């Protein structure tokens, strides 16, 4: 690993424009409750989840997934109150400056396990609607490079269409976010066609963000590392498989699809596996006009958590199979395994041009910034 | 140099029949389907399986009919295909093209009918 002469304050050269396509402002349940209608407001406020939810939800001793993301108090964030307190809006700018980020896309933190909800799905819709109002008023600030993605309550197609349309004229919302982990049915299902159709119409890139609500709940695994390493990746592979094989890119060719948070090496693995099966069963997915890997090469991928420790030749092959035009730097700040832009600039095999694209150029183009 | 190789009389082919021959060390399948004759390499490009002994069928197709609609599934009588019995690689019976990609092309051979007999032309 290359790290010679760097200090832990080091950032990337200022001649890169760095766009971070995945950061998480730590909104609190209290914040959002103020923007929800009754009776949802009271239900949420009195539900005993406390202010931040991280302690009870993503990170508690008796967790909803296997374990404590903060590794038993060892993870600390200088510019974020994560995980103990909700964030203050000015934390965002401070953390962006400290990492070296010019533009950042905010994705809800509390919603990441939302698909674990298996009943009373209005809870999720109501929360998403409140979230949109809250970040619109307090967080998004295009002049400061802080943009947001509209969370899509895709379990309710009508509500999704309403919420997406409602943000159409917001300068701060520049795309949509599907919390992909745990989505049932899988996200290539025709049930969601109208959502993607509207996404195309609104020119909203769709970010698919994995999380701990899907395969993360495999039975019998004992440690956090087992379910996190496997669950995030398996969920992304599952949702990508569904989207590609059900022909979403053929049905909605203008829709930009971006997948977050499983590094990059899983993508070539999925490419080769899907191609291998498709060659043996080519009639089951009749909307495909080319090999599954050709579609996967048109999807965009957030880098984090980049497999920095991998053999550089192997990583280079993975980057080449995906293409530098399809990769976007993502920090995932302030989460426990966040990446700094130096994870990209350190890669020995990338050209200057590749680094510019990955750090910001691709995102600037796709999100039309 | 091409060689004209006699297969057998047209009358001896029942519908769907196939004849496997070896010409210059190459295994070739001659298939009669719905009154037409086709000749293809019998060596599957996946892993050398006997593709010409596999099932000949109308391609299964599904058409997108609109947002949120299920696919409209059918058998396409205009596209006859053959599936290798070993793992299912499927080729267009006429062109030898793999259904998944035109980068994979099973060799095909010209068929001639002369005086009631079937011949294939092998390069
Ligand atoms: S050998 Fe023909 S499909 Fe495998």
Explain this structure.
Helix content of chain A is 38%, strand content 9%. With 369 residues, chain A is α/β, with parallel strands linked by helices. Chain A has a single domain, classed as TIM Barrel. Chain A has an 8-stranded parallel β-sheet with strand order 1-2-3-4-5-6-7-8. In chain A, helix 12 links the parallel strand 7 and strand 8. In chain A, helix 6 runs parallel beside helix 7. The longest helix of chain A is centred in the middle third of the chain and has 22 residues. The two termini of chain A are 33 Å apart. The N terminus of chain A is likely disordered. Chain B has 123 residues and is an all-beta fold. Chain B has one domain: Rieske [2Fe-2S] iron-sulphur domain (Rieske Iron-sulfur Protein, 3-layer Sandwich), CATH 2.102.10.10. Helix content of chain B is 0%, strand content 52%. Chain B contains no helices and 9 strands. In chain B, strands 1-9-8-4-3-2 form a 6-stranded antiparallel β-sheet, with no helix packed on it. In chain B, strand 3 and strand 4 form a beta hairpin. Chain B is globular, with a radius of gyration of 16 Å. The N and C termini of chain B lie close together (6 Å). The model of chain B has no long low-confidence stretch (mean pLDDT 97). Classes of the chains: A alpha/beta (369), B mainly beta (123). At the A-B interface, helix 7 and helix 10 of A face strand 5 of B. The structure holds FE2/S2 (inorganic) cluster (FES). The site of FE2/S2 (inorganic) cluster has 11 residues of chain B, from loops. The site of FE2/S2 (inorganic) cluster (FES) has 11 residues of chain B, from loops.
């Amino acid at each position: 690993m290359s790290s010679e002469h760097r200090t832990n304050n080091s950032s990337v050269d200022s001649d890169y424009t760095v766009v971070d396509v995945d950061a998480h402002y730590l909104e609190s349940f209290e914040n959002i409750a103020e923007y929800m209608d009754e009776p949802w407001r009271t239900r949420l406020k009195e539900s005993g989840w406390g202010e931040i939810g991280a302690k009870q939800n993503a990170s508690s001793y008796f967790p909803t997934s296997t374990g404590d993301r903060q590794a038993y108090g060892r993870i600390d964030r200088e510019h974020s109150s994560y995980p103990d307190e909700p964030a203050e809006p000015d934390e965002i700018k401070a953390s962006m400056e400290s990492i070296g980020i010019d533009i950042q896309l905010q994705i809800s933190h509390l919603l990441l396990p939302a698909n674990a909800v298996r009943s009373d799905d209005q809870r999720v819709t109501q929360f998403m609607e409140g979230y949109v109002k809250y970040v619109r008023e307090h967080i998004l600030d295009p002049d400061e490079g802080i943009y947001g993605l509209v969370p899509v309550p895709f379990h309710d197609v009508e509500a999704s269409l309403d919420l997406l349309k409602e943000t159409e004229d917001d300068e701060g919302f520049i795309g949509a976010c599907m919390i992909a982990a745990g989505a049932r049915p899988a996200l290539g299902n025709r049930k969601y066609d109208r959502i993607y159709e509207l996404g195309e119409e609104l020119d909203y890139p769709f970010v698919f963000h994995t999380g701990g609500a899907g395969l993360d709940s495999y039975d019998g695994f004992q440690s956090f590392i087992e379910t996190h390493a496997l669950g995030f990746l398996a969920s992304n592979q599952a949702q990508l498989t569904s989207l590609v094989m059900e022909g979403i890119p053929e049905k909605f060719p203008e829709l930009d699809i971006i997948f977050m948070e499983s590094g990059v090496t899983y993508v070539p693995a999925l490419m080769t596996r899907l191609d291998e099966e498709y060659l043996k069963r080519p009639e089951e997915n009749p909307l495909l006009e080319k090999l599954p890997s050709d579609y996967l090469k048109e999807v965009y991928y957030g880098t984090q958590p980049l497999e920095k420790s991998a053999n550089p030749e192997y990583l280079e092959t993975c980057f080449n199979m995906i293409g530098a035009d399809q990769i976007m730097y993502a920090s995932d700040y302030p989460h426990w395994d966040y990446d700094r832009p130096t994870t990209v600039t350190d890669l020995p095999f990338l050209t200057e041009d590749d680094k510019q694209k990955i750090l910001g150029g691709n995102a600037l183009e796709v999100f039309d910034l | 140099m091409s060689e004209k190789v006699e297969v057998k009389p047209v009358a001896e082919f029942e519908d769907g029949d196939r004849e496997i021959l070896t010409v210059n060390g190459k295994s070739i399948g001659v298939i009669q389907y719905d009154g037409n004759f086709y000749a293809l390499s019998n060596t599957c490009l996946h892993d050398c399986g006997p593709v010409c002994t596999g099932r000949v069928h109308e391609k299964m197709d599904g058409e997108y009919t609109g947002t949120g609609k299920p696919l409209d599934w059918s058998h396409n009588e205009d596209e006859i295909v053959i599936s290798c019995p070993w793992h299912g690689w499927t080729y267009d019976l006429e062109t030898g093209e793999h259904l998944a990609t035109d980068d994979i092309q099973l060799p095909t051979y010209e068929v001639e009918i002369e005086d009631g007999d079937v011949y294939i032309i092998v390069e």
